[in-house]
Design goal:
By secondary structure, the chain is of the alpha/beta class. The protein has 2 domains: 137 residues, ABC-type transport auxiliary lipoprotein component (Rossmann fold, 3-Layer(aba) Sandwich), CATH 3.40.50; 44 residues, no CATH class. It contains 5 helices and 8 strands; from the N terminus they run H-E-E-H-E-H-H-E-E-E-E-E-H. The protein is rod-shaped.
């Protein structure tokens, strides 16, 4: 029974580490040549610039990427605001200006920084104490000799309480979407949550896993 419980626990952990993705079955991804990277929304001041991690792994996977700095500059020159919802007209205009086919947009959905917690750890111990009494016996010369004789054992319980520190890893959740600039249709969406020693490491791992998952899905569709 314990063996099966351990197996189920491991499977549950692995399932939680798997990216959740959905890809459009009708979209023609062969027309996706250039990807524009938008700034990821993040209500958390301690975690920004996540889109740069996605750009890194998209480039490593062979995609042509227009970096966010260039995109921001062009949008500023054309007085285009992209905060919040992207309307079809806005996405189409961005596509025409930058010559991109799709936009990668995303959001940091959760963020908990690494922290150290202090807790009190108690340990109980039992100490055995021998019980002695004085007795008298006759020595070789016939004279009485006093000595200490153990007549039992006393057990004393005590509790030791000590402070102990433990570290809780940083946790990050991210959702990313690829949007067609012509129709504003979401053609791929993926989400994942990870924890690591630092928020940046967790975000980097998420970007890597989601881009890898997207690349695999494209390979399956193309039969490669």
């Amino acid at each position: 029974m314990k063996k099966w419980l351990c197996v189920l626990l491991v499977l549950g952990v692995l399932a939680g580490c798997t990216p959740k993705t959905v890809i459009s079955q009708s979209y023609d991804f062969s027309q996706m040549n250039r990807i524009g990277i938008m700034e990821f929304a993040s209500p958390y001041s301690g975690l920004s610039g996540v889109e740069n991690l996605f750009a890194k792994y998209l480039i490593e996977s062979g995609f042509k990427v227009v970096e966010r700095a260039q995109l921001d500059q062009v949008l500023k020159e054309h007085n285009i605001s992209v905060s919040g919802y992207l309307s079809p007209a806005t996405t189409k205009k961005i596509g025409e200006i930058l010559g991109v086919d799709v936009l990668l947009v995303g959001e940091v959905t959760s963020y908990t920084p690494m922290r150290t917690e202090l807790t009190l750890v108690s340990s109980r111990k039992t100490e055995a104490q021998p019980i002695y009494t004085q007795a008298v016996r006759t020595g070789p010369d016939g004279k009485p000799v006093a000595y200490m004789q153990q007549v039992g054992t006393r057990f004393q319980d005590s509790t030791d309480v000590r402070p102990s520190e433990y570290t809780i890893n940083a946790q990050v959740g991210i959702i990313a979407k690829l949007v067609d600039v012509e129709t504003a249709e979401i053609i791929w969406i993926g989400s994942l949550s990870k924890d690591s020693a630092s928020a940046l490491d967790a975000a980097d791992n998420i970007a890597h896993r989601l881009v890898k998952s997207f690349s695999k899905e494209l390979s399956k569709r193309s039969g490669k």
